[in-house]
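Sample intake sheet
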Amino acid sequence: MMSFAQPLLTLLQRIERGLDAIIQPVVFAGMAALIGVITLQIVSRVLFSAVGWTEEVARFLRVWITFLAGTLALQRARHIAINFAVDALPLPLCKLARLAALAIVVAFMITLIVIGYRYMQVQSFQKSASLRLSMTYVYAVMPLAAGIMAWYALVDMVEVLVNGEPTAADQEEPL
C-alpha cells in the first residue's frame, strides 16, 4: 500500500498547494478592496455626501474574506486546537484520534455544503438593497469554502494514514 499511497499523497498535496495559490491572492485582493471601499466610505462621508453602496460592498467582502481566510487557516492548521491529550496517547491511539477528529471536520463541512447550497437557493430571489445583486452570489462562499475545507481535511486524513500525522503547511512555506 505504501508504494501506491505516497504518490497519491504527493498529488493531493500538489492540488492543495494549487488551491492555496489561488485562494491566498484572492483573500489579499479582497482585503485590499475592503480597505479601498472603507476608505472611500470615510472620505465620502467627511468631504461629500455618503456613497451608499460602500457599506454593502464592505459587508459582502467581509463575508467572503472570512470564509476564504478560514480555508487558509484550516490548511495551515491555524484553527484553535487542544491537542495535548491526543499527543499524550500512544501512537496508534493518537493516529486514531486524529483520524476521528478529521472525520468529524469532513462530516461538518459536508453538512455546511448542503446547508449553504440550500440557503443559496432560498435566497436566490432576494436582491441586495444598493447594488441589486442576487444574494446567491453573497452566500455562494459558504458551500464553496466548506468544500475546500473538506478537501483539506481529507488530504490531512490521507497524510495521517500514510505518515502518521498531517504535515503542517506553514512549516513547508512561510506566509
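Comment: The radius of gyration is 20 Å. The helical segments are 2-47, 53-75, 84-88, 91-123, 135-139, 141-163, 169-172.
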